[in-house]
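Chapter review: from sequence to fold.
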Amino acid sequence: MADKHILGTEIARGRVLAEWIDINNHMNVAYYVLAFDQGIDALWREFGLTDEYIRNDEGSTFAVESHLTWQREIAEGEPYIITSQLLAYDAKRIHQFMRMYHGSEYYLAATAEWMNLHVDIKARRVAPWPQHILARIAAFAAGQAEFAWPEAAGRQMHVVDPLFSARDRE
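The token string follows.
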């Protein structure tokens, strides 16, 4: 068994479903996004961003940017764990870094960096977090002091020694 060194706070667990497998016989890209999004939903419920909150208070979040990396394959039927590390938040935004680990071998399978905005659903505009939700976000953040900024956070894609680059035409 691999070293059980998992970074971040566990927010979800799951198992790779048969319909998530692609022609390469591993989990397809789209389903990593789904698994991470389900993890976000679980974290939001912990913060009080429930279906009831969305319906009654007309507030929710919209994803505005994400960056995924794939580290190692995960196959049909295998368990996974999603963790979250809060990188930053303010009165209207939240920036987090999530990791997907194999659920029994504990290797890092993928990462997702995600930025969300809190919105007023009726106005379809960015709006401040309500105080009760902001307090829960702050409590979650306080429990994460042990985690350093992830090396992979904020990375930019590039080809080190390109044969062609659109930048050359600028």
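Two observations follow directly from the output. Residues 92 and 128 are 5 Å apart (CA to CA). The longest helix spans residues 29-47.
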